[in-house]
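Box S1 | Example of a co-folding query
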Amino acid sequence: MTHYTDYDLEAYLDEALPADEMTSLEQQLRDDRGLLDRLAEINARRDGGVHSLGAIWRRHRLTCASRTQLGGYLLGILPEAESRYLEFHVEIVGCRLCQANLADLRNQQAEPAGRANIRRQKYFQSSAGYLKR
Ligand SMILES: [Zn+2]
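Box S1 (continued) | Returned holo structure for zinc ion
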């Protein structure tokens, strides 16, 4: 069993853990009564308006990027500081919303290239046929 710190549990409540850690924590919650109690306690404290430094930091610093920013990030045209921040947000914090957005943007960018490849293939196939004749 993994030992989770309060910080981990807070990140879990914020859905700020990497996806695989979210999953393993969820699995452990099912048969670790003590862990569940701690999570409930932290959640109750948060509902009471008491937030740890970590929670406040995440809420105010780790805001999500816009689609435009993410697009720029993919193209590598963002200012370095912004790009590094996004890398941290997506890779280290593992924001699932931004990861999903990035995957979506990657698909969109890949699509025209894919179509162009098919067109090129068709062109070669037809000209090969033409040469044979
Ligand atoms: Zn995000």
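The chain has a mean pLDDT of 77. Helices lie at 6-13, 19-31, 33-47, 53-61, 67-75, 80-92, 96-132.
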